[in-house]
Amino acid sequence: MKLAQPDLSPLDFFREYCRQHHLKVTPQRLAIYQELLKSPDHPSAEIIYERVKKSLPDISLDTVNRTLLTFARIGLIDTVEGYGEVRRFDPKTQRHHHFRCLSCGRIIDFEYEPYDALSIPESLQTTLTVLKKKVLLEGYCEQCRLKKHKVRP
After folding, report:
1. 98 in Cβ contact with 109 (< 8 Å)
2. Whether the Cβ atoms of residue 102 and residue 141 lie closer than 8 Å to each other
3. Which of 39, 33, 28 lies closest to 16 in space, CA to CA?
4. Helix%, strand%, coil% for the chain, nearest 5
5. What's the pLDDT at 52?
6. Between the CA of residue 6 and those of 9, 13, 16, 139, what are the distances in Å?
7. CB 3.0 to 4.6 Å from 108: which of 5, 73, 99, 112, for a disulfide?
8. Burial environment of residue 56 by CB neighbours within 10 A (0 to 12, 13 to 18, 19 or more)
């Protein structure tokens, strides 16, 4: 069950979401969630760990990783994974898609309604239950494209 967030602050939403999923709100979980919310990127567990340990020096990478996986399991956040890349995390759970730069690894969110409306092939409809549809585009971001091809803007 996903709560509607409009009437709640991000931290109140977090507390209520955890309560509904029988998850204690610990200082570590709160710090990890706050760091993820203010991240302009789609950070890995290692990046979140490096950021959180500044305020919680005794926290372990294992705690950060397990916490992020728990958040993803209950639907509080999403995971963004590339083929063979480290798992990255996304606090934005509203419908959207991703573009991943093959050069720098940057992940860019985008919305595109036709992708939201993709139909599921009949051959899969009878054997699978699809819960989400996400499109991942891969290529070169603007900065890497300009560097790689020495193209002027």
Report:
1. yes
2. no
3. 33
4. 40, 15, 50
5. 97
6. 8, 9, 13, 35
7. 99
8. middle
Pairwise CA distance, residues 150 & 147, whole Å: 5
Backbone angles phi, psi at 70, to 5 degrees: -65, -45
Q: What are phi and psi of 97, to 5 degrees?
A: -125, 175
95-149: which CATH topology?
Dna Ligase; domain 1 (3.30.1490)
Q: And the tokens for 49?
A: 């760990």
Class in CATH terms, 10-80: mainly alpha
Q: Is 120 helix (H, G, I), strand (E, B) or coil?
A: coil
Cα 38 to chain centroid distance, Å, stands at 12
Q: Distance between CA 19 and CA 22 in Å, rounded?
A: 5
What was the pLDDT predicted at 19? 95
In contact, 100 and 82? CB cutoff 8 Å? yes
Coil vs helix vs strand at 40: coil
Contact 88, 42 (CB under 8 A): yes
Mean pLDDT by 10 residues, the chain (153 residues): 64 94 96 94 94 96 96 92 77 89 89 91 88 88 81 49
Residues 32/70, Cβ–Cβ less than 8 Å:
no
Contact by Cβ (8 Å): 141, 107? no
